[in-house]
């Protein structure tokens, strides 16, 4: 089998990865002003940087909202599309040997995909994600750059903007420690620093997603959640989700190449079908 290229085409950002045999090869992303420019820019840069000839490529698999803009084979290569939710499931499942899990895809918004063995099922989503974080940051921090937001937040103290259980009660509540969040931004005032606001925004988005993920598995057997998408790169994930694990008795996993798992899943859809 030749190289299978998986491409996750977003509105302006395209993620691309090649799978050669069982080896994931040099994932990368490209940002442009529109999905078609982003797609062709990503593909050209990927094959050039990795010394790949068109003749080395067996199949190109597209997924993501931007793939709807592509109606012809990419550079004359065999090209097909796969449902984004299936790609999410295949990409996340490839990273773990857990049979029962929910994939939490943290993109512009957030989707939830349940995996039960070989069954992959989209179970819902929410309109909170990276787009929310960027929009609020534009308004409150005058930037939408993820790296800059994360850097500003590193110096922040979320307890100055979030109301915690310990702020309203001098003892833990049933199943809720004093450091649990009682109200996101419930303690913020007009003098809050940019650093505290930045951290508060990130915590708000991540905690809301994590809480919704837990609720999506309520009364079911799933205790494992695989986080994928761009938001997994925020260092605050390693603060928020371990705390939520302790409160809810669940496990959140961030696999290697988490932000590329949808593109990986697109490639795997072809490999799986032709194995």
TrEMBL record:
Gene Ontology process terms (BP): coenzyme A biosynthetic process
A single Pfam family, by name?
Fumble
Q: Which residues form the signal peptide?
A: none
What SUPFAM superfamilies does this protein map onto? Actin-like ATPase domain
Q: Which GO terms describe its molecular function?
A: ATP binding; pantothenate kinase activity
Enumerate the UniProt keywords alphabetically.
ATP-binding, Coenzyme A biosynthesis, Kinase, Nucleotide-binding, Transferase
Choose one Gene Ontology CC annotation of this protein and give it.
cytosol
EC number, UniProt record: 2.7.1.33
- List the protein's name: Type II pantothenate kinase
């Amino acid at each position: 089998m030749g190289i299978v290229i998986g491409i996750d085409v977003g509105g302006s950002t395209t993620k691309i990865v090649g799978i050669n045999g069982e080896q994931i090869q040099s994932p990368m992303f490209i940002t442009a002003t529109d999905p078609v420019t982003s797609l062709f820019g990503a593909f050209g840069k990927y094959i050039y940087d990795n010394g790949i000839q068109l003749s080395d490529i067996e199949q190109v698999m597209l997924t993501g909202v931007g793939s709807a803009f592509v109606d012809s084979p990419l550079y004359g290569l065999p090209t097909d599309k796969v449902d984004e939710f299936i790609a999410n499931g295949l990409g996340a499942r490839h990273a773990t040997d857990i049979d029962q899990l929910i994939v939490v895809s943290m993109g512009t918004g957030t989707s939830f995909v349940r995996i039960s063995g070989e069954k992959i099922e989209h179970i819902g989503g929410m309109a909170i994600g990276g787009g929310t974080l960027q929009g609020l940051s534009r308004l409150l921090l005058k930037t939408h750059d993820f790296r800059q937001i994360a850097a500003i937040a590193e110096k922040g103290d979320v307890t100055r903007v979030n109301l915690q259980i310990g702020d309203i009660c001098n003892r833990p509540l049933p199943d809720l420690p004093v450091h649990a969040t009682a109200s996101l931004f419930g303690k913020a005032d007009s003098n809050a620093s940019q650093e505290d606001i930045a951290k508060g925004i990130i915590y708000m988005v991540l905690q809301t997603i994590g809480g919704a993920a837990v609720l999506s598995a309520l009364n079911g057997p799933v205790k494992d959640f695989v986080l994928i998408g761009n938001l997994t790169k925020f260092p605050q994930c390693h603060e928020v989700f371990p705390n939520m694990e302790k409160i809810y008795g669940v496990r959140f996993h961030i696999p290697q190449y988490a932000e590329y798992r949808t593109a990986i899943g697109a490639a795997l859809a072809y490999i799986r079908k032709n194995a």
